[in-house]
């Protein structure tokens, strides 16, 4: 969870479970009493990074803009407690830094294989959290191989898991997943993908295994590595 949108007129808060949210007539996070009929088809986006939330307006044919604390904005860095006016509705946004939302976990480094390059390891920059039973997997390398082969970083058993099923790459503070299963496939938030940038809160499905990704957006994986 990366924060809440709390209706100023009362009602159930909208939980911000992802680091990138598109707001329009078809909301990713809709109020209980329906969507926003006064909004443009694609009204605005909310993007989370290590500094917090930013709102950006998409200009529709009517030139509708988002208001923050009563002022019209195109792009605005938000502070916790700011009031967003979205197509006739007012919400107070509440949030903290992304790393404060990371679940408690033992983030000690896993034991490296004998042939591993020590310079490739650093403090974890994220977690893969199983949806069900299993151990949390700290992301401590810039490239993580997932598969059934013993030389994979994250080993998942099963006939429907390829030896090297997919690869996670950390680039410029973001994680990207690439399918290397040669036809067995994978899903992100239930959607089949071949290659996909991952946001915090995305759920990666490989065969029967489902992992939710948590990480502080924009962090540098190589910071502090000894050379």
Q: Can you give a write-up of this model?
A:
0% of the residues lie in helices and 37% in strands. Mean pLDDT is 75; it is low at 28-38, 97-123 and 218-227. Strand 1 and strand 2 form a beta hairpin. The chain folds into 2 domains: 3-94, Tumour Suppressor Smad4 (Sandwich), CATH 2.60.200.20; 126-214, Tumour Suppressor Smad4, CATH 2.60.200.20. With 227 residues, the chain is mostly beta strands. The protein has strands at 4-7, 14-15, 20-23, 44-49, 52-57, 66-68, 71-73, 75-77, 83-86, 89-94, 127-130, 137-138, 143-147, 154-155, 166-171, 174-179, 187-188, 191-192, 195-198, 203-206, 209-214. It has no helices and 21 strands. The relative contact order is 0.14. It has a 6-stranded antiparallel beta sheet, with no helix packed on it. It has a 6-stranded antiparallel beta sheet with strand order 12-11-21-20-17-18, with no helix packed on it. Strands 14-13-15-16-19 form a 5-stranded mixed beta sheet, with no helix packed on it.
């Amino acid at each position: 969870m990366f924060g809440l949108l709390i209706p100023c007129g009362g009602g159930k808060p909208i939980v911000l479970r992802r680091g990138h949210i598109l707001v329009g007539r078809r909301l990713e996070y809709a109020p209980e009493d329906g969507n926003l009929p006064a909004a443009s088809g694609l009204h605005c986006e909310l993007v989370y990074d290590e500094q917090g939330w930013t709102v950006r307006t998409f200009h529709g044919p009517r030139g509708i803009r988002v208001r923050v604390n009563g002022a019209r904005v195109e792009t605005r860095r938000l502070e916790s407690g700011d009031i967003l006016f979205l197509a006739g509705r007012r919400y107070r946004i509440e949030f903290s830094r992304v790393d404060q939302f990371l679940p408690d976990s033992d983030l000690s480094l896993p034991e490296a294989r004998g042939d591993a390059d020590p310079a490739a390891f650093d403090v974890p920059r994220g977690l893969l959290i199983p949806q069900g039973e299993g151990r949390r997997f700290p992301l401590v390398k810039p490239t993580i191989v997932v598969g059934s082969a013993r030389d994979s970083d994250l080993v998942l058993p099963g006939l429907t898991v390829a030896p090297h099923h997919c690869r996670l790459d950390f680039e410029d503070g973001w994680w990207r997943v690439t399918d290397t299963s040669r036809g067995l496939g994978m899903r992100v938030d239930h959607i089949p993908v071949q290659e996909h940038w991952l946001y915090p809160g995305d759920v990666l499905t490989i065969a029967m295994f489902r992992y939710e990704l948590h990480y502080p957006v924009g962090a540098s994986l190589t910071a502090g590595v000894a050379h």
